[in-house]
Amino acid sequence: EYREVVRLRPQEPSAHFDLASALQAKGDSAGAANEYEEAIRLRQDYSEAHYNLAEILEGQGQKDRARQEYEAYLQLAPSASNADQVRAKLRKLGAGVRN
User: Fold this and answer.
1) What is the pLDDT of residues 30-58, one digit of tens each?
2) Three-state SS across the chain?
């Protein structure tokens, strides 16, 4: 159980990321967002957590926060395989997208 791992290793960003992923898969977007935020708090350069949090925020209609997380993701992973898709999402959200 991912919650047990978080309980045993609360300072481990990947524990929070794994729990967030499990919560997201179960449809608990709010719980997942909280865990992704905690993973990012513990490791600010956790690009995957920024991306997954952005996806949740965008789905909730929180465009400004989603934009911030997508931008953070691109700063951390500018050559990611999905970078062009993320830039397209930013354009859709109305951000001034940089290369």
Assistant:
1) 999 999 999 999 999 999 999 999 999 99
2) CHHHHHHHCCCCHHHHHHHHHHHHHCCCHHHHHHHHHHHHHHCCCCHHHHHHHHHHHHHCCCHHHHHHHHHHHHHHCCCCCCHHHHHHHHHHHCCCCCC
Distance set, CA 45 to CA 34, 37, 39, 48 (Å): 17, 12, 10, 9
The pLDDT tens digits for 74-99 are 999 999 999 999 999 999 998 555 54
- The pTM assigned to this predicted structure is 0.92
Give CA–CA dist 37/79, Å, rounded: 23
Alpha-carbon distance of 90 to 93, in angstroms, equals 5
